[in-house]
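DM from R.C. (forwarded with permission)

"hey, sorry to bug you on a friday — could you get me a structure for this? deadline for the figure draft is monday and I only need the backbone to look sensible"
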Amino acid sequence: MKKTLLLSSCIAMLGLLCTAQGAGTLLWDMSFTGTSSSPSAGNIVVTGADGNAYTTLSPNFGGGSVTDGIYNSVSGNRMTFTDSASPIKMKDNFSFVVKTSLNAGSTSNWPVLFGLGEAGSWNLKVNYTKGDNAGWTFSPEGYSLSNQISTAGTVVQGVEQTFIVTVDTGANNTGLLTLYLNGEIIATATLASTNRTNELLDTFSLGGRPISTQNTQSADFSNVQLYQGVLSAEQIASLSGNVPESATASLSLTGLALLALRRRRPQH
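My reply, with the result:
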């Protein structure tokens, strides 16, 4: 009876930990397929949360290539895409995930790695700034940002990294922007309440700005995801390839339960 109660308690705790994980809900997941020097819609695969094809995402490859399922944006080129049925508005909470590997020469000319925003000229860019405080930061076009803080750091070349942008409603309908690199916060900013409108989040870019071929970034992109809501710490760690603390705790609880049951076995 005591063994059963102990095991039940541990299982219940594991259930609570699993329930606590996950605050963001996947809207779509985009990857690349095939090999082409002139990529088109046939070189992307987009699935929704149900695993079925998400058909309203339209890509526009302004150059670059797809090789073995990896999109390579080269200098002067980038990919843009729109979602004609986006359910997310700029007043909502959302999270944007980009997995990419930067190529040589990416630190020149304040390059833009990716952007997202409304159709037209209003967008948020993530770019690398040069100078004494070189590092990753948000760069808005049309939007008003304040309280921006970024962590100085160098560009790592040739290694796949995970960039995550989360937008979380703050006081007075402002939005807290947070940029993660491999699970670590590297920049934050406040999006003005006047910019938190009913306009749709439907415009995206990889390897440069959504509306211009200036300041492009030479990089390889393997995966892009959009979530409704703000990702939890566990989700961010998992997407970044790190072991979430709660998962470690779950394993510890399982081990303790098994150890306790083993110690209670009758000795022969």
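R.C.: lifesaver. The mean pLDDT is 82.
me: no worries. The longest helix spans residues 2-20.
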